[in-house]
Amino acid sequence: FIKCLFICLSFLYTFPFSERCLKSEISIENGFFSESEFAYPLNKERKYQCKSGYVTPDGKTSGSITCLESGWSPQPTCIDILTKLFDLFFIEIECKFPEVEENLIATPRKDKYRVGDVLKFSCRSRLKRVGPDSVQCYDFGWSPNFPTCKEQTKQCAPPPQLLNGKVKETPKEIYEHSDLVEYVCNTRFLMKGFKKIQCVDGQWTDLPMCIGNVLKIFMVHELHYSSVVQSSASPYHHRDSVEFNYMEDFTMIGHKSVTCLNGMWTPLPQCITTDEPKKCKYGLNRKEVQPLSKTVYDHNEKVNYKCRGATKLKHSTCINERWNTELKVITQPCPPPPQIPNAQNMATTVNYQDGEKVSVVCQDNYIIQGAEEIVCRNGRWQSIPRCVEPSGKCVSPPSIDNGDITSFPLLAYAPGLSVEYKCQAFYVLQGPRTITCRNGKWSSPPPKCLAPCAVSEEILRRHNIRFRWSYEKKIYSMTGDMIEFNCLHGYRRKTPVHTFRPICQDGKLLYPECE
Protein backbone atom coordinates (compact mmCIF):
# COMPACT_ATOMS: atom_id res chain seq x y z
CA PHE A 1 0.00 0.00 0.00
CA ILE A 2 2.80 2.45 0.88
CA LYS A 3 4.57 1.74 -2.42
CA CYS A 4 1.36 2.31 -4.36
CA LEU A 5 0.71 5.58 -2.50
CA PHE A 6 4.21 6.82 -3.37
CA ILE A 7 3.87 5.97 -7.08
CA CYS A 8 0.45 7.60 -7.37
CA LEU A 9 1.44 10.78 -5.59
CA SER A 10 4.72 11.00 -7.49
CA PHE A 11 2.77 10.81 -10.76
CA LEU A 12 0.65 13.72 -9.59
CA TYR A 13 3.71 15.93 -9.28
CA THR A 14 5.25 15.10 -12.66
CA PHE A 15 2.89 17.22 -14.75
CA PRO A 16 4.65 20.07 -16.61
CA PHE A 17 4.60 23.46 -14.85
CA SER A 18 2.29 24.98 -17.48
CA GLU A 19 -0.25 22.12 -17.29
CA ARG A 20 -1.12 22.09 -13.61
CA CYS A 21 -2.63 24.22 -10.86
CA LEU A 22 -1.10 24.54 -7.39
CA LYS A 23 -2.86 24.60 -4.03
CA SER A 24 -0.75 27.64 -3.09
CA GLU A 25 -2.33 29.69 -5.90
CA ILE A 26 -5.71 30.00 -4.22
CA SER A 27 -7.04 30.59 -0.72
CA ILE A 28 -10.55 30.23 0.68
CA GLU A 29 -11.82 32.73 3.20
CA ASN A 30 -13.82 30.83 5.85
CA GLY A 31 -13.04 27.48 4.20
CA PHE A 32 -10.31 24.96 3.41
CA PHE A 33 -9.45 22.25 0.90
CA SER A 34 -10.74 18.84 1.96
CA GLU A 35 -8.18 16.90 -0.10
CA SER A 36 -4.48 16.57 0.67
CA GLU A 37 -3.03 16.94 -2.86
CA PHE A 38 -0.85 19.99 -3.52
CA ALA A 39 -0.95 20.06 -7.36
CA TYR A 40 -3.63 19.20 -9.93
CA PRO A 41 -3.48 18.53 -13.69
CA LEU A 42 -5.66 20.43 -16.19
CA ASN A 43 -9.42 19.83 -15.99
CA LYS A 44 -9.05 18.17 -12.57
CA GLU A 45 -11.82 19.06 -10.12
CA ARG A 46 -10.95 19.80 -6.53
CA LYS A 47 -13.28 19.82 -3.51
CA TYR A 48 -13.31 22.41 -0.73
CA GLN A 49 -15.06 22.49 2.63
CA CYS A 50 -16.57 25.45 4.48
CA LYS A 51 -15.75 26.00 8.14
CA SER A 52 -18.36 25.54 10.87
CA GLY A 53 -21.05 28.20 10.58
CA TYR A 54 -20.37 28.88 6.88
CA VAL A 55 -21.89 27.52 3.65
CA THR A 56 -21.40 27.90 -0.10
CA PRO A 57 -23.63 30.42 -1.97
CA ASP A 58 -26.01 27.56 -2.84
CA GLY A 59 -26.33 26.60 0.85
CA LYS A 60 -24.06 23.54 0.90
CA THR A 61 -21.17 22.80 3.27
CA SER A 62 -18.79 21.94 0.42
CA GLY A 63 -18.14 22.85 -3.21
CA SER A 64 -15.64 22.32 -6.00
CA ILE A 65 -13.36 24.24 -8.38
CA THR A 66 -11.58 23.10 -11.56
CA CYS A 67 -8.03 23.51 -12.87
CA LEU A 68 -8.26 25.38 -16.21
CA GLU A 69 -5.63 26.65 -18.65
CA SER A 70 -6.10 30.15 -17.22
CA GLY A 71 -5.72 28.82 -13.66
CA TRP A 72 -8.33 27.80 -11.13
CA SER A 73 -11.98 28.38 -11.99
CA PRO A 74 -13.74 31.24 -10.12
CA GLN A 75 -12.74 31.86 -6.50
CA PRO A 76 -14.58 29.53 -4.09
CA THR A 77 -16.78 31.26 -1.54
CA CYS A 78 -18.00 30.40 1.96
CA ILE A 79 -20.54 32.77 3.53
CA ASP A 80 -21.96 33.12 7.03
CA ILE A 81 -24.81 30.64 7.44
CA LEU A 82 -26.92 33.26 9.25
CA THR A 83 -26.53 35.60 6.26
CA LYS A 84 -27.59 32.76 3.98
CA LEU A 85 -30.67 32.06 6.10
CA PHE A 86 -31.68 35.71 5.97
CA ASP A 87 -31.11 35.71 2.20
CA LEU A 88 -33.40 32.69 1.85
CA PHE A 89 -36.28 33.89 4.03
CA PHE A 90 -36.20 37.70 3.82
CA ILE A 91 -34.51 38.41 0.52
CA GLU A 92 -37.52 39.96 -1.29
CA ILE A 93 -39.06 41.98 1.55
CA GLU A 94 -35.97 43.25 3.32
CA CYS A 95 -35.67 46.83 2.05
CA LYS A 96 -38.04 49.16 0.21
CA PHE A 97 -37.23 52.32 -1.70
CA PRO A 98 -36.74 54.96 1.02
CA GLU A 99 -38.49 58.27 1.40
CA VAL A 100 -35.78 60.89 0.90
CA GLU A 101 -35.76 64.68 0.71
CA GLU A 102 -36.63 66.20 -2.66
CA ASN A 103 -33.11 67.43 -3.44
CA LEU A 104 -31.58 63.97 -2.95
CA ILE A 105 -31.38 61.62 -5.93
CA ALA A 106 -31.23 57.87 -5.14
CA THR A 107 -30.31 55.24 -7.73
CA PRO A 108 -31.15 52.60 -8.85
CA ARG A 109 -34.85 52.96 -8.09
CA LYS A 110 -36.74 49.70 -7.44
CA ASP A 111 -39.76 48.60 -5.41
CA LYS A 112 -37.79 45.99 -3.45
CA TYR A 113 -34.11 45.43 -2.73
CA ARG A 114 -32.29 42.24 -1.88
CA VAL A 115 -30.03 41.95 1.15
CA GLY A 116 -26.66 43.27 -0.01
CA ASP A 117 -28.04 45.69 -2.63
CA VAL A 118 -26.48 49.15 -2.63
CA LEU A 119 -28.27 52.48 -3.12
CA LYS A 120 -26.23 55.48 -4.34
CA PHE A 121 -26.98 59.17 -3.68
CA SER A 122 -26.26 62.49 -5.33
CA CYS A 123 -27.56 66.03 -4.78
CA ARG A 124 -29.17 68.33 -7.31
CA SER A 125 -26.98 71.03 -8.86
CA ARG A 126 -25.20 73.55 -6.60
CA LEU A 127 -25.97 71.53 -3.46
CA LYS A 128 -23.47 69.63 -1.32
CA ARG A 129 -24.05 66.14 0.03
CA VAL A 130 -23.76 65.78 3.82
CA GLY A 131 -23.44 62.12 4.75
CA PRO A 132 -22.54 58.90 2.90
CA ASP A 133 -22.70 58.65 -0.90
CA SER A 134 -24.25 55.15 -0.66
CA VAL A 135 -26.00 52.78 1.76
CA GLN A 136 -26.49 48.99 1.79
CA CYS A 137 -29.55 46.82 2.47
CA TYR A 138 -29.18 44.51 5.50
CA ASP A 139 -31.56 42.22 7.37
CA PHE A 140 -32.12 45.10 9.82
CA GLY A 141 -32.79 47.68 7.05
CA TRP A 142 -30.77 50.35 5.25
CA SER A 143 -27.49 51.43 6.83
CA PRO A 144 -25.84 53.83 7.49
CA ASN A 145 -28.29 56.74 7.76
CA PHE A 146 -29.22 58.58 4.56
CA PRO A 147 -27.42 61.81 3.61
CA THR A 148 -28.94 65.26 3.22
CA CYS A 149 -28.25 68.12 0.77
CA LYS A 150 -27.20 71.63 1.80
CA GLU A 151 -26.25 74.86 0.07
CA GLN A 152 -23.50 75.66 2.59
CA THR A 153 -21.43 73.41 4.85
CA LYS A 154 -19.37 74.23 7.92
CA GLN A 155 -15.65 73.77 8.54
CA CYS A 156 -14.19 71.67 11.37
CA ALA A 157 -11.73 72.58 14.09
CA PRO A 158 -8.58 70.43 14.56
CA PRO A 159 -9.45 66.75 15.17
CA PRO A 160 -9.89 65.52 18.76
CA GLN A 161 -7.13 63.73 20.65
CA LEU A 162 -7.25 59.93 20.80
CA LEU A 163 -6.48 58.14 24.07
CA ASN A 164 -3.40 55.95 23.52
CA GLY A 165 -3.16 57.13 19.91
CA LYS A 166 -2.42 60.14 17.72
CA VAL A 167 -3.14 61.76 14.35
CA LYS A 168 -0.89 60.27 11.66
CA GLU A 169 -0.12 63.55 9.87
CA THR A 170 0.50 67.07 11.19
CA PRO A 171 -2.87 68.61 12.19
CA LYS A 172 -4.16 71.75 10.45
CA GLU A 173 -5.96 74.70 11.97
CA ILE A 174 -9.07 74.37 9.78
CA TYR A 175 -10.58 71.38 7.95
CA GLU A 176 -13.09 71.60 5.11
CA HIS A 177 -16.26 69.54 4.81
CA SER A 178 -15.39 65.95 3.66
CA ASP A 179 -11.71 66.20 4.75
CA LEU A 180 -10.27 62.97 6.21
CA VAL A 181 -7.87 62.45 9.14
CA GLU A 182 -6.15 59.15 9.91
CA TYR A 183 -5.14 57.93 13.40
CA VAL A 184 -2.55 55.42 14.59
CA CYS A 185 -2.37 53.73 18.00
CA ASN A 186 0.63 53.88 20.30
CA THR A 187 2.98 50.92 20.51
CA ARG A 188 1.36 47.79 22.00
CA PHE A 189 -2.18 49.12 21.49
CA LEU A 190 -4.72 47.64 19.06
CA MET A 191 -7.13 49.81 17.05
CA LYS A 192 -10.84 49.03 17.10
CA GLY A 193 -13.17 50.94 14.81
CA PHE A 194 -12.37 53.19 11.84
CA LYS A 195 -8.80 54.43 11.47
CA LYS A 196 -10.09 57.49 9.57
CA ILE A 197 -12.57 60.14 10.71
CA GLN A 198 -14.22 62.72 8.46
CA CYS A 199 -15.33 66.33 8.80
CA VAL A 200 -19.08 66.35 8.13
CA ASP A 201 -20.67 69.81 8.17
CA GLY A 202 -18.64 71.06 11.10
CA GLN A 203 -18.58 67.84 13.11
CA TRP A 204 -16.08 64.98 13.18
CA THR A 205 -17.32 61.42 12.85
CA ASP A 206 -16.65 59.09 15.80
CA LEU A 207 -13.12 58.30 16.95
CA PRO A 208 -11.69 54.77 16.91
CA MET A 209 -10.42 53.17 20.13
CA CYS A 210 -6.90 52.04 21.03
CA ILE A 211 -7.15 49.00 23.30
CA GLY A 212 -4.40 47.61 25.52
CA ASN A 213 -4.08 44.20 27.18
CA VAL A 214 -4.07 42.40 23.84
CA LEU A 215 -2.67 38.88 23.55
CA LYS A 216 1.07 38.35 24.00
CA ILE A 217 3.41 35.79 22.44
CA PHE A 218 6.30 34.25 24.37
CA MET A 219 8.33 32.92 21.44
CA VAL A 220 8.96 33.41 17.73
CA HIS A 221 9.23 30.51 15.29
CA GLU A 222 12.74 29.56 14.21
CA LEU A 223 13.64 30.59 10.66
CA HIS A 224 16.14 28.22 9.09
CA TYR A 225 19.32 29.61 7.46
CA SER A 226 18.88 32.97 9.19
CA SER A 227 19.67 34.79 12.41
CA VAL A 228 17.76 37.33 14.50
CA VAL A 229 19.39 40.76 14.14
CA GLN A 230 16.90 42.92 16.02
CA SER A 231 14.28 41.97 18.58
CA SER A 232 12.45 43.27 21.62
CA ALA A 233 12.51 41.16 24.77
CA SER A 234 10.13 38.23 25.24
CA PRO A 235 7.19 38.15 25.82
CA TYR A 236 6.28 39.96 22.63
CA HIS A 237 3.40 42.43 22.79
CA HIS A 238 1.11 43.82 20.13
CA ARG A 239 3.15 45.52 17.34
CA ASP A 240 6.50 44.23 18.66
CA SER A 241 8.76 43.11 15.80
CA VAL A 242 11.57 40.63 15.20
CA GLU A 243 13.98 41.19 12.31
CA PHE A 244 15.89 38.41 10.52
CA ASN A 245 19.02 38.31 8.43
CA TYR A 246 19.85 35.48 6.01
CA MET A 247 23.05 33.47 5.77
CA GLU A 248 25.51 33.67 2.90
CA ASP A 249 24.37 31.99 -0.35
CA PHE A 250 20.72 32.43 0.63
CA THR A 251 18.05 34.91 -0.46
CA MET A 252 15.21 36.12 1.76
CA ILE A 253 11.72 36.01 0.25
CA GLY A 254 9.10 38.19 1.95
CA HIS A 255 9.40 40.85 4.64
CA LYS A 256 12.61 40.63 6.66
CA SER A 257 10.73 41.22 9.91
CA VAL A 258 7.63 39.75 11.56
CA THR A 259 5.24 41.64 13.83
CA CYS A 260 3.03 40.47 16.68
CA LEU A 261 -0.56 41.53 15.92
CA ASN A 262 -3.13 40.71 18.59
CA GLY A 263 -1.41 37.48 19.61
CA MET A 264 -0.41 36.28 16.12
CA TRP A 265 2.79 36.72 14.11
CA THR A 266 2.61 38.14 10.60
CA PRO A 267 3.89 35.63 7.97
CA LEU A 268 7.51 34.54 8.30
CA PRO A 269 9.88 35.25 5.42
CA GLN A 270 11.59 32.36 3.67
CA CYS A 271 15.31 31.82 3.11
CA ILE A 272 16.15 29.94 -0.09
CA THR A 273 19.35 29.27 -2.00
CA THR A 274 20.26 32.07 -4.39
CA ASP A 275 19.45 30.11 -7.57
CA GLU A 276 16.25 28.50 -6.25
CA PRO A 277 13.48 31.15 -6.76
CA LYS A 278 10.49 29.84 -8.72
CA LYS A 279 8.42 31.35 -11.52
CA CYS A 280 4.88 32.74 -11.27
CA LYS A 281 1.83 31.93 -13.38
CA TYR A 282 -0.36 34.76 -14.68
CA GLY A 283 -3.85 33.51 -13.88
CA LEU A 284 -6.30 36.30 -14.71
CA ASN A 285 -9.06 35.55 -17.18
CA ARG A 286 -8.18 37.05 -20.56
CA LYS A 287 -11.76 38.26 -20.95
CA GLU A 288 -11.23 40.54 -17.96
CA VAL A 289 -7.89 42.12 -18.88
CA GLN A 290 -6.04 43.17 -21.97
CA PRO A 291 -4.11 40.17 -23.41
CA LEU A 292 -0.47 39.69 -22.44
CA SER A 293 2.32 38.12 -24.48
CA LYS A 294 3.06 35.35 -21.95
CA THR A 295 1.61 33.56 -18.93
CA VAL A 296 4.74 32.59 -16.92
CA TYR A 297 7.08 35.13 -15.29
CA ASP A 298 10.50 34.81 -13.65
CA HIS A 299 11.32 35.66 -10.02
CA ASN A 300 11.60 39.46 -9.58
CA GLU A 301 9.95 40.06 -12.98
CA LYS A 302 7.24 42.73 -13.03
CA VAL A 303 3.91 42.52 -14.85
CA ASN A 304 1.82 45.50 -15.93
CA TYR A 305 -1.82 44.86 -16.78
CA LYS A 306 -4.99 46.82 -17.33
CA CYS A 307 -8.56 45.74 -16.74
CA ARG A 308 -10.87 46.05 -19.73
CA GLY A 309 -12.64 49.39 -19.76
CA ALA A 310 -10.12 50.91 -17.31
CA THR A 311 -7.44 53.51 -18.03
CA LYS A 312 -5.11 52.95 -15.08
CA LEU A 313 -2.36 50.34 -15.21
CA LYS A 314 -1.92 47.90 -12.31
CA HIS A 315 1.38 46.32 -11.30
CA SER A 316 2.70 43.27 -9.50
CA THR A 317 6.08 41.54 -9.11
CA CYS A 318 6.79 37.81 -9.07
CA ILE A 319 8.42 36.83 -5.75
CA ASN A 320 9.29 33.13 -5.66
CA GLU A 321 6.11 31.72 -7.24
CA ARG A 322 3.84 34.34 -5.64
CA TRP A 323 2.74 37.81 -6.75
CA ASN A 324 3.57 40.51 -4.18
CA THR A 325 0.26 42.22 -5.01
CA GLU A 326 -2.73 40.02 -5.79
CA LEU A 327 -3.64 39.99 -9.47
CA LYS A 328 -7.28 40.98 -9.76
CA VAL A 329 -9.60 43.09 -11.84
CA ILE A 330 -10.97 46.40 -10.61
CA THR A 331 -13.63 45.90 -7.96
CA GLN A 332 -16.24 48.26 -6.57
CA PRO A 333 -15.65 50.06 -3.25
CA CYS A 334 -18.08 49.47 -0.39
CA PRO A 335 -20.39 52.09 1.10
CA PRO A 336 -19.67 53.20 4.66
CA PRO A 337 -19.99 50.27 7.11
CA PRO A 338 -23.40 49.57 8.65
CA GLN A 339 -24.55 50.63 12.08
CA ILE A 340 -25.09 47.16 13.55
CA PRO A 341 -27.85 47.10 16.21
CA ASN A 342 -26.43 47.16 19.75
CA ALA A 343 -22.89 47.83 18.45
CA GLN A 344 -20.91 50.90 19.41
CA ASN A 345 -21.52 53.89 17.16
CA MET A 346 -20.10 53.16 13.71
CA ALA A 347 -21.13 56.45 12.10
CA THR A 348 -18.82 57.36 9.22
CA THR A 349 -19.20 58.62 5.67
CA VAL A 350 -15.98 57.03 4.37
CA ASN A 351 -16.12 54.43 1.60
CA TYR A 352 -13.83 51.37 1.82
CA GLN A 353 -11.85 49.55 -0.86
CA ASP A 354 -12.14 45.86 -1.72
CA GLY A 355 -10.45 43.69 0.91
CA GLU A 356 -10.43 46.34 3.65
CA LYS A 357 -11.71 45.30 7.08
CA VAL A 358 -13.43 47.11 9.94
CA SER A 359 -13.59 45.75 13.48
CA VAL A 360 -16.93 45.65 15.29
CA VAL A 361 -17.26 46.43 19.02
CA CYS A 362 -20.53 45.69 20.83
CA GLN A 363 -22.03 48.00 23.43
CA ASP A 364 -21.57 47.22 27.11
CA ASN A 365 -23.61 44.21 28.26
CA TYR A 366 -23.68 42.76 24.72
CA ILE A 367 -21.42 40.14 23.15
CA ILE A 368 -20.55 39.65 19.51
CA GLN A 369 -22.03 36.73 17.58
CA GLY A 370 -20.01 36.00 14.45
CA ALA A 371 -16.80 37.50 13.08
CA GLU A 372 -15.21 40.42 14.92
CA GLU A 373 -14.39 42.09 11.60
CA ILE A 374 -16.50 42.82 8.54
CA VAL A 375 -14.86 42.63 5.11
CA CYS A 376 -15.47 44.65 1.94
CA ARG A 377 -15.88 42.25 -1.02
CA ASN A 378 -16.97 43.35 -4.51
CA GLY A 379 -18.81 46.45 -3.32
CA ARG A 380 -20.63 44.79 -0.39
CA TRP A 381 -19.89 44.22 3.28
CA GLN A 382 -19.64 40.49 4.10
CA SER A 383 -20.02 38.37 7.28
CA ILE A 384 -22.07 40.88 9.27
CA PRO A 385 -22.05 39.82 12.97
CA ARG A 386 -24.69 40.53 15.58
CA CYS A 387 -24.47 42.01 19.05
CA VAL A 388 -26.65 39.95 21.43
CA GLU A 389 -27.36 39.90 25.13
CA PRO A 390 -25.21 37.32 26.90
CA SER A 391 -27.06 34.36 28.33
CA GLY A 392 -24.02 32.61 29.77
CA LYS A 393 -23.95 30.60 26.57
CA CYS A 394 -21.28 30.81 23.87
CA VAL A 395 -21.78 31.31 20.17
CA SER A 396 -20.30 28.83 17.68
CA PRO A 397 -16.59 28.19 18.34
CA PRO A 398 -14.06 30.02 16.15
CA SER A 399 -13.27 28.34 12.84
CA ILE A 400 -9.70 27.44 11.80
CA ASP A 401 -7.95 26.96 8.46
CA ASN A 402 -7.39 23.35 7.36
CA GLY A 403 -9.25 21.98 10.36
CA ASP A 404 -12.58 21.85 12.17
CA ILE A 405 -14.27 20.77 15.39
CA THR A 406 -14.90 17.05 15.88
CA SER A 407 -18.58 17.43 16.83
CA PHE A 408 -21.62 18.77 15.00
CA PRO A 409 -21.70 22.59 15.45
CA LEU A 410 -24.45 24.12 17.61
CA LEU A 411 -25.90 27.62 17.44
CA ALA A 412 -25.22 28.06 21.18
CA TYR A 413 -23.15 26.24 23.81
CA ALA A 414 -24.05 26.03 27.51
CA PRO A 415 -21.42 27.02 30.10
CA GLY A 416 -18.98 24.18 30.73
CA LEU A 417 -19.38 22.59 27.31
CA SER A 418 -16.17 21.96 25.40
CA VAL A 419 -15.30 21.43 21.75
CA GLU A 420 -12.31 19.58 20.35
CA TYR A 421 -10.42 20.59 17.20
CA LYS A 422 -8.71 18.36 14.67
CA CYS A 423 -6.66 19.09 11.57
CA GLN A 424 -7.06 17.51 8.17
CA ALA A 425 -4.59 14.79 7.09
CA PHE A 426 -0.88 15.61 7.44
CA TYR A 427 -1.51 18.93 9.25
CA VAL A 428 -0.18 19.40 12.80
CA LEU A 429 -2.25 21.01 15.54
CA GLN A 430 -0.55 23.92 17.33
CA GLY A 431 -2.27 25.28 20.43
CA PRO A 432 -5.09 24.00 22.65
CA ARG A 433 -6.90 20.98 21.25
CA THR A 434 -9.94 21.70 23.45
CA ILE A 435 -11.60 25.00 24.40
CA THR A 436 -14.44 25.45 26.93
CA CYS A 437 -17.41 27.82 27.17
CA ARG A 438 -17.09 30.01 30.28
CA ASN A 439 -19.41 32.94 31.08
CA GLY A 440 -20.39 33.40 27.45
CA LYS A 441 -16.82 33.32 26.11
CA TRP A 442 -14.49 30.58 24.94
CA SER A 443 -11.62 29.83 27.30
CA SER A 444 -8.84 30.56 24.77
CA PRO A 445 -8.21 31.34 21.12
CA PRO A 446 -8.48 28.33 18.78
CA PRO A 447 -5.44 26.31 17.68
CA LYS A 448 -3.75 26.49 14.27
CA CYS A 449 -3.15 23.73 11.74
CA LEU A 450 0.42 23.79 10.47
CA ALA A 451 0.82 22.66 6.87
CA PRO A 452 2.86 19.63 5.76
CA CYS A 453 5.70 19.72 3.22
CA ALA A 454 5.40 17.88 -0.09
CA VAL A 455 8.46 16.29 -1.72
CA SER A 456 7.99 15.18 -5.33
CA GLU A 457 10.27 13.45 -7.83
CA GLU A 458 10.23 16.67 -9.84
CA ILE A 459 11.62 18.66 -6.90
CA LEU A 460 14.31 16.06 -6.22
CA ARG A 461 15.46 16.15 -9.85
CA ARG A 462 15.45 19.95 -9.91
CA HIS A 463 17.91 20.06 -7.00
CA ASN A 464 19.90 16.98 -8.07
CA ILE A 465 19.22 15.24 -4.77
CA ARG A 466 17.71 12.01 -3.41
CA PHE A 467 16.58 10.73 -0.03
CA ARG A 468 19.59 9.68 2.06
CA TRP A 469 18.08 6.36 3.03
CA SER A 470 16.99 4.13 0.16
CA TYR A 471 13.93 2.89 2.06
CA GLU A 472 12.66 6.42 2.73
CA LYS A 473 10.08 7.51 0.19
CA LYS A 474 8.22 10.24 2.07
CA ILE A 475 5.95 12.30 -0.14
CA TYR A 476 4.52 14.25 2.80
CA SER A 477 6.43 15.34 5.89
CA MET A 478 4.63 16.93 8.80
CA THR A 479 5.75 20.11 10.51
CA GLY A 480 8.73 19.35 12.76
CA ASP A 481 9.91 16.33 10.74
CA MET A 482 13.54 16.26 9.61
CA ILE A 483 14.33 14.87 6.16
CA GLU A 484 17.83 13.78 5.15
CA PHE A 485 19.10 14.13 1.57
CA ASN A 486 22.18 13.16 -0.42
CA CYS A 487 23.39 14.21 -3.86
CA LEU A 488 22.53 12.09 -6.87
CA HIS A 489 25.33 9.88 -8.16
CA GLY A 490 27.89 12.01 -10.01
CA TYR A 491 26.93 15.28 -8.25
CA ARG A 492 28.53 17.09 -5.33
CA ARG A 493 27.26 19.43 -2.62
CA LYS A 494 26.70 23.06 -3.62
CA THR A 495 25.13 24.24 -0.33
CA PRO A 496 26.50 23.72 3.23
CA VAL A 497 26.27 20.31 4.94
CA HIS A 498 23.56 21.40 7.38
CA THR A 499 21.18 22.19 4.47
CA PHE A 500 20.98 18.44 3.72
CA ARG A 501 18.95 17.89 6.92
CA PRO A 502 16.10 20.44 6.58
CA ILE A 503 13.09 20.53 8.90
CA CYS A 504 9.54 20.95 7.63
CA GLN A 505 8.19 24.25 8.88
CA ASP A 506 4.48 24.96 8.28
CA GLY A 507 4.54 23.85 4.65
CA LYS A 508 8.02 25.18 3.90
CA LEU A 509 11.06 22.99 3.27
CA LEU A 510 14.40 24.49 2.24
CA TYR A 511 16.06 22.10 -0.17
CA PRO A 512 19.83 21.59 -0.50
CA GLU A 513 21.54 21.96 -3.88
CA CYS A 514 23.95 19.65 -5.75
CA GLU A 515 25.92 20.37 -8.90
Helix and strand arrangement:
Layout: H1 2-12, E1 20-22, E2 31-33, E3 39-41, E4 45-50, E5 54-55, E6 62-68, E7 71-72, E8 79-80, H2 81-90, E9 95-96, E10 104-107, E11 112-113, E12 118-123, E13 128-130, E14 134-138, E15 141-143, E16 148-150, E17 165-167, E18 180-185, E19 190-192, E20 196-200, E21 203-204, E22 209-211, E23 226-231, E24 241-246, E25 250-253, E26 257-261, E27 264-265, E28 270-273, E29 280-281, E30 296-297, E31 302-305, E32 314-319, E33 322-323, E34 357-359, E35 367-369, E36 373-377, E37 380-382, E38 386-388, E39 403-405, E40 418-423, E41 428-430, E42 434-438, E43 441-442, E44 448-450, E45 453-454, H3 457-463, E46 465-467, E47 476-477, E48 485-487
Antiparallel strand pairs: 1-3, 2-4, 4-6, 5-8, 6-7, 9-11, 10-12, 12-14, 13-16, 14-15, 17-18, 18-20, 19-22, 20-21, 23-24, 24-26, 25-28, 26-27, 29-30, 31-32, 32-33, 34-36, 35-38, 36-37, 39-40, 40-42, 41-44, 42-43, 45-47, 46-48
In CATH terms, what is the fold-level topology of the domain at 214-327? Complement Module, domain 1
Terminal residue distance? 34 Å
Q: Which percent bin holds the helix content?
A: under 10%
The radius of gyration is 26 Å
CATH superfamily of the domain at 214-327: Complement Module, domain 1
Number of helices: 3
Tell the overall outline: globular
Which percent range describes the beta-strand content?
25-35%
**Mean pLDDT figure:** 78
GO molecular function: complement component C3b binding
Keywords: Disulfide bond, Signal, Sushi
Domain Sushi: 19-80, 93-151, 154-212, 332-389, 392-451
Protein name: Sushi domain-containing protein
